[in-house]
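Support request, priority: normal
Reporter: lab tech (M.K.)
Component: structure prediction queue

Hi team, I submitted a job for ATPase from Nocardiopsis suaedae yesterday, and the status page still shows it as pending. I've pasted the exact input below so you can check whether something in the sequence is tripping the parser. The sequence length should be 324 residues. Please let me know if I need to resubmit or if it's stuck on your end.
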Amino acid sequence: MVSGKGGTGKTTAAAALALSLAADGGRVLLVEVEGRQGLAELFGRDPLPYEERKVAEARGGGEVAALAVDAEAALMEYLEMFYGIRRAGQALTRFGAVDFATTVAPGVRDVLLTGKATEAVRRREGGRRARREEGPHAYDAVVLDAPPTGRIAQFLCVNAEVAGLARMGPIRNHADKAMATIRSAATAVHFVALPEDMPAQEAADGLAEVREAGLHPGFVLLNMVHEPLLPPDVLEAAERGEVDTEALAQGLKAARLDAPRERAAALAREVTAHAQRVGAESAVRQRLRALGRPLLELPFLGGGIGTDALFRLADRLTAQGVAR
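Reply from support: The job had stalled in the queue. We restarted it manually and it finished. Here are the results:
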């Protein structure tokens, strides 16, 4: 599960994580539940249907499939799977009953979304007809691009509430299986943060909430980190505003650039701003390390995010120890 404050790049991080986990022959399913079609855009694909489709081949021949879970389609599948009444579900859709139910009781929507993701985790090769306790799993890992930090615990624990309301029957069994998967030691909730105070605090709050809910916190992923461009001693001095403008001017003059002193003053301001940003990011990094979870980092990529950039980010995660 990958969560984070809006704007931290959690969908990008989830996609990079899936590629990293699929390296060297793995098969990974990447699941989207917010209806934004962010995964299709990242991988340069047409909008994803309610169907698991290959979107990328990872390093070493692995495969990433993606699924955009739709609450209505999940309900149709649920009714067919447990009750054999898909047509009745289609009639409910025509009358707007599904939209009404998911609007009045948002928990219903979350049950359908988490249920589909956890079913993919438990599925064995051969699909639903395969015996559930035999044979390899259909996927080596499932990565869920989860809702933002503010509602992650509620989203993941909604099945426990449903299980408390339904004492028996398919609904209770469905909810129990979903919660067993979510609370399994094989499931982890990772949090994406930026090297800024507010996203870092939301990641800390999310970790605490997940622990309190009895779930397993994973790592903290610090995204969009700026690489230091100068040696540490130069950065420390520049952060204090100590930049040798005269030396810069002499260097610019030696390079035969126009207006070397004006350029040196502007360059000194940029060096100071860069040093202050690196210093602020370092302070946030220390705060996140104090949370007691592994801290992974992804660099800021100024050229935008496309498939090539996703592979670069996945390689960074692999280099930091991410593996199935």
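DSSP finds 13 helices and eight strands in the chain. Residues 228-280 form one domain. Let us know if anything else looks off. Ticket resolved.
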